[in-house]
């Protein structure tokens, strides 16, 4: 069935064709009485955004499949503003997984309040470590992209859009919770697959946002991982329990 079409999308603005990434002034035209006509891209002669008629579930499935068209629809042609909340929730999931693994390695059934508070502090510490690692990872990506393609990140809005894309593309970390709940012998393998999926999503987000080839986003992600590990090692040498 046809999804909800917000009237705000018909206003003039900077939209993108999901096929060729060309600019468009409108996504569809409303002829009243329920008659809508999707705009056609002047560059590729295809519908500017076919997803405005799709159900959100279909859009989500296409995003999970890392289709560039779905990413362009979400990043450029919608008003989604959940990246901050999504980032915090994903970090909480990662912190919970690390905290759970820490508890498994330290079996202590003492009901003393001091022990409970120590365990609670461990969770906050895991959240801080996860936040530090993700921030370092993003900084490494930004440094690499700014060095390799400075013309792509000239304005503050370019940085904000890329940051939003990176935060949204970390949604794969939500899979950490069911991976822990349905614990089995292959949990480490599942966690590795989740990590790879998140990196693939990050790569696609960078590629779509900056309209790059496939190689440069992966180079930026590789440097981001190196920078993340370097920051963690630095804090460990400083005596921090990271």
From TrEMBL:
UniProt family annotation: Belongs to the ARV1 family.
InterPro entries: Arv1
General function of this protein: Mediator of sterol homeostasis involved in sterol uptake, trafficking and distribution into membranes.
Subcellular location: Endoplasmic reticulum membrane
Assigned keywords, A-Z: Endoplasmic reticulum, Lipid metabolism, Lipid transport, Membrane, Transmembrane, Transmembrane helix, Transport
GO cellular component: cortical endoplasmic reticulum; endoplasmic reticulum membrane; Golgi apparatus
Membrane topology: Multi-pass membrane protein
Pfam families given in the database record: Arv1
Segments passing through the bilayer: 126-147, 159-182, 189-209, 215-235
GO biological process annotation, one example: sphingolipid metabolic process
Protein name (database record): Protein ARV
